[in-house]
Each structure stands twice: as C-alpha cells, then as structure tokens.
Write a structure and sequence with these properties.
heterodimer, A: 114 residues, seven-stranded mixed β-sheet, B: 114 residues, mainly beta, four-stranded antiparallel β-sheet, 12 strands, globular
C-alpha cells in the first residue's frame, strides 16, 4: 500500500465530454504530483502541488486541463472537451518531506476516449 | 534539462539467469536516480534510489544498481531472475531542484522464461 488512492480506476468517455479524476494521499500538506502515461511509454510530468499551491505545470497541460488541491489534501484533475489523444493512464504521487524522499504512486486512472 | 535513456525496450532472460537493465541519464546538476517497477494495470513501485550516498544501492526483491558518474549510468541488476520479476521497469532522474519532478525513461519490459 503506497498510501495513495485514485478514483475512478477506469473511465470510458466520448470525445468532447468532460472528466474528473480524484487523488487521495494518506498524508496532507505535502507535495502531490500528477503524471500521464501513454501506452508503451514512461510517465510524463503534468503538474505538482506543495500543500494547496500549484507550483509548476508542464507544457503538456493544455488549457483543457485543470488541477486543484483544496486545503492541501485530496486533488482533482479535470479534462474538458476530451480528445482521443487524452487516452492514457493518469498517475498521482505523493512526496512527504525532503527532496530526497520517495514519490509514492497511486494505482492510476485509465482514461479511454472513444 | 534532464533525460533518461533505457537501452532495450524488451529484455528476455531465463529463470535463474542474471538480469541487467540499462539506464543512462543526462542532467545538468547532480542527480537523484530511481528505478521503479510496474505490474500490469498498476501504479509504480519503487525498487531503489540513489541520493548521493553509497554509489552501490540495494533495493527490494534482490535488485541493486550502481551509480557511475563517469559513464552517466545507473544500470539495474539482479543475480538470479525469478518468474515474478516479469514486469515493466522504469529508470527516472530528479534534478534536485524545486519541484523534484521525475523524468522517466521509456521503460524496459522484462520477460522471464521458465
């Protein structure tokens, strides 16, 4: 158990629909990361939070993507007007303290856009 | 900028044979280096990490890796493969800067033959 849960585990949607994913880390007020992993590739960084502040966003995070972390606890990632290219595994990770600490990953949410 | 190259997208070994998965990195600052394992439809599990202590790092499940600065390498080894080692393995680098986001390689799928 990595102390990170993600819901839903699987999401199938039609192109143009909006979707929202949730990440719940076991501990609060730490760093939380979102990554995207397409089939056959390594994960790619999307964005991260320090407590409730979103400190960095990758250029992969287009205007259709938005992430929030109210109160520094759980986080949500929303994709508006989904496209087939958004189909991927979306991974959330927590990091509890020092920069040398491990990032613990959740099981991911697999998104399929039809 | 950072990057990771994993040589060999697929590696096949016999059960009981040596496992060697190659990773080369590029980083403008002293790196932190990680190996993660991913089983089908699951998140990533940390195998081991290098954070500037001993250059030979021992991890879980009998894996180890050696940081070689002169070769910019961090290859993963295991003396004797087990069927349960069959999975996808990812090498990642973090640049010790604010954020500590991970940059992953493309992954190596390890197959273990009986």
């Amino acid at each position: 158990d990595t102390g990170v849960s993600q819901n839903p585990r699987h999401k199938i949607t039609k192109r143009g629909q909006n979707v929202t994913f949730r990440c719940d880390p076991i501990s609060e007020h730490n760093r939380l990361y979102w990554y995207r992993q397409t089939l056959g590739q390594g994960p790619e960084f999307l964005t991260y939070f320090q407590n409730e502040a979103q400190l960095e966003k990758s250029r992969l995070l287009s205007d259709r993507f938005s992430a929030e972390r109210p109160k520094g606890s759980f986080s949500t990632l929303e994709i508006q007007r989904t496209e087939q290219g958004d189909s991927a595994m979306y991974l959330c990770a927590r990091q509890d303290g020092a920069s040398t600490d491990t990032q613990y990953f959740g099981p991911g949410t697999r998104l399929t856009v039809l | 900028a950072q990057s990771v190259t994993q040589l060999g997208s697929h590696v096949s070994v016999s059960e009981g044979a040596l496992v060697l998965l190659r990773c080369n990195y590029s980083s403008s600052v002293p790196p932190y280096l990680f190996w993660y394992v991913q089983y089908p439809n699951q998140g990533l599990q940390l195998l081991l990490k290098y954070t500037s202590a001993a250059t030979l790092v021992k991890g879980i499940n009998g894996f180890e890796a050696e940081f070689k600065k002169s070769e910019t390498s961090f290859h993963l080894t295991k003396p004797s493969a087990h069927m349960s080692d069959a999975a996808e393995y990812f090498c990642a680098v973090s640049g010790r800067r604010a954020g500590n986001m991970l940059t992953f390689g493309g992954g190596t799928r390890l197959m273990v033959k009986p």
